[in-house]
Fold:
Amino acid sequence: ETGVTQTPRHLVMGMTNKKSLKCEQHLGHNAMYWYKQSAKKPLELMFVYNFKEQTENNSVPSRFSPECPNSSHLFLHLHTLQPEDSALYLCASSQSGGANYGYTFGSGTRLTVV
Amino acid sequence: GESVGLHLPTLSVQEGDNSIINCAYSNSASDYFIWYKQESGKGPQFIIDIRSNMDKRQGQRVTVLLNKTVKHLSLQIAATQPGDSAVYFCAEGVHSGTYKYIFGTGTRLKVLA
Structure:
């Protein structure tokens, strides 16, 4: 394990369902991120949180709603998704400010929208 | 726009040989670069990084080379092993309050027995 835990690992949901993805980091980092990984595409940044405050929303549709109750937990609430939203959703954390050593990623949630 | 790309989408290498994975970046302001490895069913894992004030950095069996003149980054893996089979991403980072990264699409490395 990397210190960033994502649940569930796999999720199948209908277009009318509401579900949530969870991410938890045990590294003491103060920044957390949601990325979308689709086949044959680079990682797409969705949201950035620094010290629990959202600092970036990369033009993500409102059917994706992030929540960051504290620096260790990050959620992605999903509702009325489309089939093209099927992808691997990756959570990452980092220590912002000072020396930076990149992100630590979780293993992702494989989402299938049917 | 800014982009990070990889020259070869798939690389097949004999076990024991050296592997070289290449990456081009476009933002001359990028000052930090990372190589990630992503195995099947897992998230990207940090392998090695390099800052723009360096042109070479070595780790255990891995070496990253940075050529800022042509905006080129490479990852060399010595004595490639079956466990090295994975997708490798490069990422370029620019510091703007915190670091922002642009990721490449990835190169799949296949190690042949």
